[in-house]
């Protein structure tokens, strides 16, 4: 099981990496909120454990951003003991809240409880877009043809945009969220980048790019992946 731990205290990161790693968990670490968001997209953790008081993006902002497109379990581990902080974090979408200092036995129990009841974000790794098959786990795109399947090559940025959309079938994904996830918080207004990459994705994946069937624009808001109806 892969756990992403986000905290700006290197001693806590080191201690948890050693302690949880010794119990068989695969540990990823991030020292600030922006790195945590990038790691959620790139590493697909089974659990996100984060502090609230982090630089660049605080924990509340990370929770709100992740919950815009992912159901990965979120466990807040924070020194903030006020009831309002707990309520705010849980209202934004955190699944549980542990205050520092904590016992490792309690932390392990919370981890087990969360990962038992919430499915992994990798539960549906293969998505069909007409003649195009996207394997999210293998990071492979193929298109059916008369002879044999053809490989469709995507750039790393195209992959990141496509993955956010496909993991949220039918849901609106705002431009701000996509920009923040792919380029970081300092590019929240650079919607020209996004339009360019969406256009490129449509050319590669849609049968008629000018009239997209799957990668839809929601005017003034963002984009939506419209999946094929279940058979």
How would you summarize the topology of this molecule?
Blueprint: E1 2-6, H1 10-21, E2 26-30, H2 33-43, E3 47-50, H3 59-67, E4 74-78, H4 83-92, E5 96-99, H5 104-117, E6 126-129, E7 132-135, E8 140-143, E9 150-151, H6 156-166, E10 172-174, H7 175-183, H8 191-205, E11 215-218, E12 222-225
Parallel strand pairs: 1-2, 1-3, 3-4, 4-5
Antiparallel strand pairs: 6-7, 7-8, 8-9, 10-12, 11-12
Helix pairs in contact: 2-3, 6-8
Count of strand segments: 12
What would the average pLDDT be, to the nearest integer?
85
> Segments where pLDDT lies below 50 for 5+ residues?
118-122
How far is it from the N-terminal to the C-terminal residue, by CA?
32 Å
CATH architecture of the largest domain: 3-Layer(aba) Sandwich
| Radius of gyration based on Cα positions | 19 Å
Which bin fits the share of residues in helices?
A: 25-40%
What is the class of the largest domain in the CATH system?
A: Alpha Beta
**Beta fraction:** 15-25%
CATH superfamily of the largest domain: Response regulator
Main pleated-sheet profile: 5 strands, parallel
Broad structural category: alpha/beta
How many helix segments?
A: 8
Here the CATH topology of the largest domain equals Rossmann fold
């Amino acid at each position: 099981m892969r756990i992403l731990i986000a905290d700006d205290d290197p001693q806590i990161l080191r201690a948890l990496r050693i302690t949880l790693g010794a119990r068989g968990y695969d540990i990823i670490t991030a020292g600030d909120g922006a790195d945590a968001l990038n790691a959620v997209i790139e590493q697909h953790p089974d659990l996100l454990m984060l502090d609230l008081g982090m630089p660049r993006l605080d924990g509340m902002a990370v929770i709100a951003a992740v919950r815009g497109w992912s159901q990965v379990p979120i466990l807040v581990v924070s020194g903030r003991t006020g009831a309002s902080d707990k309520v705010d974090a849980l209202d934004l979408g955190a699944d549980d809240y542990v205050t520092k200092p904590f016992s490792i036995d309690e932390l392990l129990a919370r981890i087990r409880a969360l990962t038992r009841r919430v499915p992994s974000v990798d539960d549906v790794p293969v998505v069909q877009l007409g003649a195009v098959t996207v394997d999210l786990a293998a990071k492979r795109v193929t298109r059916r043809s008369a002879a044999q399947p053809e490989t469709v090559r995507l750039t790393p940025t195209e992959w990141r945009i496509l993955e956010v959309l496909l993991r949220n079938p039918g849901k609106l994904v705002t431009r701000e969220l996509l920009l923040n996830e792919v380029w970081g918080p300092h590019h929240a207004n650079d919607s020209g980048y996004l339009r360019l990459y969406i256009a490129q994705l449509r050319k590669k994946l849609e049968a008629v790019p000018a009239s997209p069937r799957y990668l839809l624009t929601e005017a003034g808001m963002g984009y939506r992946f419209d999946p094929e109806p279940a058979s």
